[in-house]
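Reopening: structure tokens for the iron/sulfur cluster complex, inputs below.
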Amino acid sequence: MTPRRPTRQITLGDDRVGFVKIGGGKPDRHGNPTTPAPVSVQTMTAGYTHDIDKCVAEIHKLAAGGADVVRVAVPEKKDTDALKHIIPQIKVPIVADVHFHFQRALDAVESGVHKIRLNPGNINDRAQVIEVIKACKAANGGKGIPIRVGVNEGSIIERKDKQKRAKELGAVFSDHKHGYMLAIMIAKLEEYLDIFYEQDFYDIGISAKSMDAALTIDAYTEISKRFDHPLHLGVTHAGPKETGTIRSVVALGSLLTQGIGDTLRISYANDPIYEVQDGLELLYCLGLRERKGVDLIACPTCGRIQVDLFTLVQDVRKQLAEKVTVPMKVAVMGCIVNGPGEAEGADVAVFAGDRRGIIYVQGEKVANVPEAEILPRLLHECLEFQGKVLRGEVKLGEKKVDIVPPDPIGELGSGWEKIAAEKRTQTATLTIGKS
Ligand code: SF4
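Re-run output (same inputs, fresh job):
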């Protein structure tokens, strides 16, 4: 992992909803040092903003699911009017997503929104942009609110002068598959941000989204060399969840490993709560955020499987997500041949054998139950273990205990009978947990 790229830092929020910092590492405008904030996860509501009660409920759900920031669409005056009623009820910073009408940005600022997103592709009248900048500067009792400048492949091209721009800019990245698009994204950002700099406004985040994962990686990489504003990562129009997740994660994961990216949205056509879950999981996997809740390890299954593992894993995942808040590692393994090794480091683990489950807590065997009892017993052990962690009686991943697996091979599988009968034969000594 490359260390995080130092950027300016922006802050969203207020005393009531709390504050979310984005980016950092460069001194602030007063010369005070800033520390890079954890990469934050954003999403966008799917319902109408003017449907106030539903919008509030959706924002609550997304915030409870781990969204650090929630964006809402404000295409009409009734949407920005609704913000006046929504913002006092929610507990997470809100971004107004503005397109086409600069007046919607002014209305959103007046409604108390915590950040504005502008699209240079459809709000590009200089005088109008300046008016929005001045309103954001004066907002929040004069402390100001940030603006995200979000260029987007789908709306960046000015159709009327495409030929001229293509000729001017095409040579910039002439050896790049998407050279024209890359060049126009950067040129548009440079032109647009000059307006902000002339107004002495630097409270800016940047995004440059494409539906093409490779172009997204190259666009953000080039932008990170040219601007020191925090970057909002995303792949736009990524498609359905099944393919959109991969499209987003390959682009965003690649950028994050290069130290690029300060906040992100995974986006696809599905309930936005999944975007939040996937965004968090990406950051957990890269060690960029401290995990909240269970880290579930499960084997992929193979011909040695001894129980209905797919169902068991899904049931364990759902139930633990609701009940466990400490970041314990839980392993669910289909057999005991490779299970202990694959689950190394788990706090609680179950290995299946002969339609039974052998449950370990920090390496100590605590149960050997028939398949039907695996789920309730495993949940019970996880909750008991969580209680001990919360009481300070044990530490996560710390206890080093030898697991002595039974002999599953023996005389062509006779080991499974020994498992059922709890007559274990030591064939190897495995260790789980950190030393
Ligand atoms: S734990 Fe057992 S069933 Fe699961 S993948 Fe490994 S060998 Fe196959």
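The pocket of iron/sulfur cluster is lined by residues 299-302, 304-305, 333-335, 337-339, 342 (CB under 6 Å). Residues 179-198 form the longest helix (20 residues). Marking as resolved unless the reporter disagrees.
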